[in-house]
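To the wet lab folks,

You asked to see what we're planning to order before we commit. Fair enough. Below is the target structure as tokens, and below that is the sequence we designed to fit it. If anything looks off to you, flag it before the synthesis order goes out.
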């Protein structure tokens, strides 16, 4: 059989292999993170009401005349104290809009090894996974003041 005939015979297999490789290349493995869109209901108003007010903006913590780290998380103050503001003791921002990994707040809530000091809220109880996801989704949405 000539080389040309062999090539002609193999062409469908080559095309199939190429298509299969491309199709498989776009599929994620079960261990890869899912890039689902953030919850559109993850608003700053909810973060304030469900996270900051009950867990952070407490006397002796992030409220009052002398809040910890100079960060007042009381309603009416929290947004300007968090979004785009450099974190104390870190080169990261407290909240970097659209960038969960660049947001020091998320690391503090999770107790990541990258933080200085303690996991927040100090001494617990720590946020439920739903509350933590609310914060993450709000940041992924671009941390709007909504």
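Sequence we intend to order:
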């Amino acid at each position: 059989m000539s080389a040309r005939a062999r090539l002609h015979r193999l062409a469908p297999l080559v095309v199939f292999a190429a298509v299969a490789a491309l199709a498989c290349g776009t599929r994620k493995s079960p261990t890869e993170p899912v890039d689902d869109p953030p919850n559109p209901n993850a608003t700053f108003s909810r973060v304030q009401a469900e996270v900051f007010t009950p867990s952070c903006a407490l006397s002796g913590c992030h409220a009052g005349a002398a809040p910890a780290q100079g960060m007042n998380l009381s309603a009416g103050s929290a947004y300007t104290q968090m979004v785009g503001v450099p974190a104390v003791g870190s080169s990261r921002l407290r909240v970097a809009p659209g960038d969960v990994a660049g947001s020091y707040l998320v690391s503090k809530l999770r107790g990541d090894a990258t933080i200085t000091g303690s996991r927040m809220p100090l001494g617990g109880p720590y946020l439920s996974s739903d509350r933590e996801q609310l914060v993450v989704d709000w940041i992924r949405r671009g941390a709007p003041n909504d």
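Structural context that might help your review: The longest helix spans residues 3-25. Residues 44-140 form one domain.

Thanks,
Computational group
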